[in-house]
């Protein structure tokens, strides 16, 4: 009597791929360590660059842009290493042989990248506040910045995963990823910087600008992540 084997569900594939990425990172700590050190080094450079600026510099107005610059370039470093283990060890070809929806690979990898970014942000954001806003402080509405921070991080992880897949087999992939990543992320970056600055400074009528910028960032996330999810089968199989 033949035994019928039950095909694993899409959710089972997603969980298995996510566990693989998380367990691999917990074992090596390559991505989190490199991203964390890079973020700390950028904060040190910021401190050196702004040390002689004097009291005329309004650091509170600049804080949103400075913080997002740290997050953007730190995420770029991590995304460059996103598929390094799969490529070096030949795991990517094995994953493509598994009869499953290729978009599951995208969702699992994007989720893993999102979690790694969140871990780094949990460390670097408080340090940023301590070093650069410890003296001048921020508006009472500063906790609202966590919303654009979350929306922006989701967009970076989703779009970045797609672009890192596109550039994985290209020569000079580090440069190619940066060239594609920063222009494509500019609308999201602009919206998140505007919303973060509004939350930190709370100027008159800031809620309207905050809500508009946040809506733009959310719409960007929805559209770009859906496009990445739909096109991922073609991109990873090319």
UniProtKB/TrEMBL annotation:
<feature type="transmembrane region" description="Helical">
    <location>
        <begin position="145"/>
        <end position="163"/>
    </location>
</feature>
<feature type="transmembrane region" description="Helical">
    <location>
        <begin position="59"/>
        <end position="79"/>
    </location>
</feature>
<dbReference type="InterPro" id="IPR003544">
    <property type="entry name" value="Cyt_c_biogenesis_CcmB"/>
</dbReference>
<dbReference type="Pfam" id="PF03379">
    <property type="entry name" value="CcmB"/>
</dbReference>
<comment type="similarity">
    <text>Belongs to the CcmB/CycW/HelB family.</text>
</comment>
<dbReference type="GO" id="GO:0005886">
    <property type="term" value="C:plasma membrane"/>
</dbReference>
<keyword id="KW-1133">Transmembrane helix</keyword>
<feature type="transmembrane region" description="Helical">
    <location>
        <begin position="110"/>
        <end position="133"/>
    </location>
</feature>
<keyword id="KW-0472">Membrane</keyword>
<dbReference type="GO" id="GO:0017004">
    <property type="term" value="P:cytochrome complex assembly"/>
</dbReference>
<keyword id="KW-0201">Cytochrome c-type biogenesis</keyword>
<feature type="transmembrane region" description="Helical">
    <location>
        <begin position="209"/>
        <end position="232"/>
    </location>
</feature>
<keyword id="KW-0813">Transport</keyword>
<keyword id="KW-0812">Transmembrane</keyword>
<protein>
    <submittedName>
        <fullName>Heme ABC transporter permease CcmB</fullName>
    </submittedName>
</protein>
<feature type="transmembrane region" description="Helical">
    <location>
        <begin position="35"/>
        <end position="53"/>
    </location>
</feature>
<dbReference type="GO" id="GO:1903607">
    <property type="term" value="P:cytochrome c biosynthetic process"/>
</dbReference>
<feature type="transmembrane region" description="Helical">
    <location>
        <begin position="175"/>
        <end position="197"/>
    </location>
</feature>
<dbReference type="GO" id="GO:0015232">
    <property type="term" value="F:heme transmembrane transporter activity"/>
</dbReference>
């Amino acid at each position: 009597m033949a035994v019928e084997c039950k095909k694993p569900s899409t959710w089972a594939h997603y969980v298995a791929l996510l566990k693989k990425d998380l367990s691999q990172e917990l074992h090596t700590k390559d991505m989190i360590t490199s991203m964390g050190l890079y973020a700390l080094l950028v904060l040190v450079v910021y401190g050196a660059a702004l040390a002689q600026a004097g009291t005329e510099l309004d650091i509170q107005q600049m804080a949103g842009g400075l913080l997002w610059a740290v997050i953007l370039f730190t995420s770029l470093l991590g995304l460059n290493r996103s598929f390094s283990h799969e490529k070096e060890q030949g795991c990517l070809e094995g994953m493509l042989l598994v009869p499953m929806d290729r978009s599951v690979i995208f969702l699992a990898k994007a989720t893993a990248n999102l979690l790694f970014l969140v871990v780094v942000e949990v460390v670097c954001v408080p340090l940023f506040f301590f070093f650069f806003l410890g003296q001048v402080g921020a508006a009472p509405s500063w906790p609202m910045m966590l919303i654009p921070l979350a929306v922006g991080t989701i967009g970076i992880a989703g779009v970045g995963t797609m672009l890192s897949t596109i550039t994985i087999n290209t020569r000079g992939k580090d440069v190619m990823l940066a060239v594609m990543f920063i222009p494509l992320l500019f609308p999201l970056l602009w919206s998140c910087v505007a919303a973060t600055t509004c939350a930190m400074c709370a100027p008159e009528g800031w809620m309207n600008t905050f809500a508009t910028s946040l809506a733009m960032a959310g719409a960007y996330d929805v559209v770009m992540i859906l496009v990445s999810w739909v096109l991922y089968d073609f991109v990873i199989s090319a």
